[in-house]
Inverse folding.
């Protein structure tokens, strides 16, 4: 994809975001665009930076570490959004600002332990599994309060909210119903942690439904960079 196409894609996406914010009577600045750059080359991230994007999401650690190293000259903010094996927790804690996919206390403890003392606390979302057939990742809603209680005291982490990847659906009403469950789960958790402020939900194909239900971070890959090969 050339830079002009990328710029057009980003402009269209921001237009979608603003339009849906307006429809939902929300302030578009309250919705952050996280550009999912997994499987995209370093040059695509540089081009997206030139188009104004600063927040980038990666799912595969080895690929991400190479990109982060190659892009050290740019002021980018990196988010880890993929499944986490415990032997990868250290590298994630050392190289990312955010992790959206925490679903076990063991991973949270390791991320906290390995977060370097000189860095700001790692910003954390707990991944919740709201349509349990769809994915093996994520904590079940009923297990969330216990996980929140265990994560809150960890000194290297700042718990911000929830992330979800609902089962894909072509129906707007179905998409909204799933995202509404995430919003309600966050609302309930505020009884334990009043400062929770983040709903990481919505991708290229269901961003509008997520914004309508309160998303504060939308994670968008293909609508920015084009279809991925994997
Ligand atoms: C790949 C990925 C995305 C982006 O998906 P698109 O459909 O390309 O927008 C968002 N979130 C997660 C966790 C992903 O793995």
């Amino acid at each position: 994809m050339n830079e002009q196409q990328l710029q057009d894609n980003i402009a269209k996406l921001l237009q979608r975001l603003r339009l849906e914010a307006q429809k939902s009577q929300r302030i578009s600045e309250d919705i952050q665009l996280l550009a999912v750059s997994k499987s995209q080359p370093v040059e695509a991230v540089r081009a997206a930076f030139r188009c104004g994007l600063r927040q980038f999401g990666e799912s595969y650690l080895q690929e991400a570490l190479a990109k982060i190293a190659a892009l050290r000259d740019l002021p980018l903010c990196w988010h880890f959004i993929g499944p986490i094996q415990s032997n990868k927790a250290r590298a994630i804690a050392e190289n990312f600002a955010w992790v959206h996919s925490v679903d076990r206390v063991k991973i949270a403890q390791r991320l906290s332990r390995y977060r370097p003392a000189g860095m700001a606390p790692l910003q954390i979302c707990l991944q919740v599994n709201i349509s349990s057939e769809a994915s093996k990742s994520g904590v079940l809603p009923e297990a969330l309060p216990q996980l929140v209680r265990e994560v809150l005291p960890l000194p290297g982490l700042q718990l911000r909210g929830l992330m979800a990847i609902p089962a894909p659906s072509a129906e707007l009403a179905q998409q909204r119903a799933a995202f509404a469950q995430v919003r309600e789960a966050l609302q309930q958790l505020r009884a334990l942690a009043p400062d929770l402020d983040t709903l990481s939900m919505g991708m290229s194909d269901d961003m509008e439904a997520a914004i309508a239900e309160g998303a504060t971070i939308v994670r968008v890959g293909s609508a920015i960079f084009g279809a991925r090969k994997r």
